[in-house]
Design a protein that fits this description.
The chain has helices at residues 17-20, 22-31, 35-41, 56-69, 144-157, and strands spanning 2-5, 8-11, 74-85, 90-101, 105-112, 116-120, 124-129, 134-139, 168-175, 178-184, 194-201, 208-215, 220-230. It has 245 residues and is of the alpha+beta class.
Length: 245
């Protein structure tokens, strides 16, 4: 079928994947791991590397958390991600697994309702999704974003929460279990994207239980971690990019 506009014939363009499969498009979009969440998983999100200001009570809590997190060598955990997209007025729910291994390996897997895999190994980032069924491989060396995320993994395992204070103002919402609210400082680049990040730590203070991210556009992402195993050997298959059929 052809459309005629002002006397000219114009071939009707094929519908995009987003129009043909709106729900699947939303799920694919939501499956991409929030880089800010990955960075918080490996300690800070962007740029922070020094000691910022914190009051005495905050400093004591951060030092306590740093001491406990410093014993972590590997993390294997399931997660549930709920992404509230303001423009679409709906919540997209994803479930999957995260594996971290000191100092520079990370695997982020979405298992349902679609499948998606991102693996970082210090030299390369590789991702796979079931829609394309293709593996994309990218060098992380020289890419400032990937280098920042990977470079933060080592800091994450030492639990350097205080390094966030250069870029965020910290509010302790609860001391037990610890709940930390990070609001980007005015005038910084982070504040142009993120409104606040709230980190909920487990009662035993060994690992993060929940990350909630609210961006300036009103979208909200909440990632809850469960069935978490610390310091257990990681199977070689966890670093495979293409999942088993």
């Amino acid at each position: 079928m052809k459309q005629i506009i002002h006397g000219r014939k114009r071939a009707q363009r094929p519908q995009s994947f987003a129009r043909r499969n709106p729900l699947r498009f939303l799920r694919s979009f939501a499956a991409k791991p929030p880089r800010i969440a990955l960075a918080f998983l490996v300690t800070s999100v962007l740029l922070g590397s020094g000691q910022g200001f914190a009051d005495e009570d905050s400093t004591d809590l951060l030092q306590s958390l740093e001491k406990r997190f410093s014993t972590i060598k590997t993390v294997q955990t399931k997660f549930r991600q709920e992404k509230e997209l303001k423009i679409f007025s709906r919540t997209i729910v994803m479930e999957g697994r995260v594996v971290l291994e000191n100092p520079d390996r990370l695997a982020w897997r979405i298992d349902t309702p679609i499948r998606y895999v991102l693996v970082l190994n210090g030299k390369y980032a590789m991702q796979w999704d079931e829609d394309s069924n293709k593996v994309q491989k990218m060098k992380t060396h020289g890419d400032p974003i990937f280098e920042e995320v990977i470079g933060q993994i080592e800091k994450w395992f030492s639990g350097e929460f205080a390094s966030l204070l250069n870029d965020y103002d910290l509010t302790i919402k609860s001391e037990q279990p610890p709940v930390l609210e990070f609001i980007p400082k005015q005038g910084g680049m982070i504040g142009k994207v993120i409104r606040r990040v709230t980190i909920s730590v487990r009662e035993d203070r060994r690992y993060v239980e929940r990350i909630a991210i609210e961006d300036v556009g009103g979208d909200k992402t909440t990632i809850t971690f469960y069935d978490t195993v610390l310091n257990a050997p990681v199977a070689a298959g966890e670093w495979e990019v293409v999942p088993d059929a």
